[in-house]
Amino acid sequence: MTTSIRTFIPISTMKILRLILLSSLVAAMPLLAAGQAGHEHSAPAKLVQAVREATQQFIDVNNAGPAGYGPAFGCVSGPDHGAMGIHYINGPLVVDGQIDEAHPEALIYEPVGNRRRLVGVEYIVDAATWLAAHNGAPPMLEDQAFQFVNSPNRYGIPAFFELHVWAWRDNPNGAFVDWNNKVSCEGQ
Fold first, then answer.
1. pTM
2. pLDDT given for residue 10 in this prediction
3. What is the 8-class DSSP label of residue 97?
4. What are the sequence ranges of the domains in the chain?
């Protein structure tokens, strides 16, 4: 025995409902696209772009010295993966207790034979100086929180706050993490 199910909605009404549904989806598409415009994932973060603009002159490592930057600590490799590279530090910027996105305390270069390739920067501020001047609040730059590095540390310096910005070398783990798997100390 076969049972037939009849629809109680006439076919013409179904066609009208489908047309209304399709029209509403077409009308909503520009709104959906506009909502995504501000979340373009391939666009660099504002801070990454600001660092690129501020450090363009340091692509040539020969410009670092006259600006007060000098190499320190050798090439810094990760404990189990990646590296940071060679930090060219500007001592007066480190001890001034200020953070200025246009003047990072350290430029980071990857060694490639006897050349140096700019890969990023590091903002560094003495923790005690910063905390005393900012009521105990840790530093932030363009909504990026600095990391606290206590003393004693591998660098033999007092406790400090730091923020890496991989502006010149993509980092698969994020533009603001310490270690970059695409940077190596092997080329020195």
1. 0.75
2. 52
3. -
4. 46-165
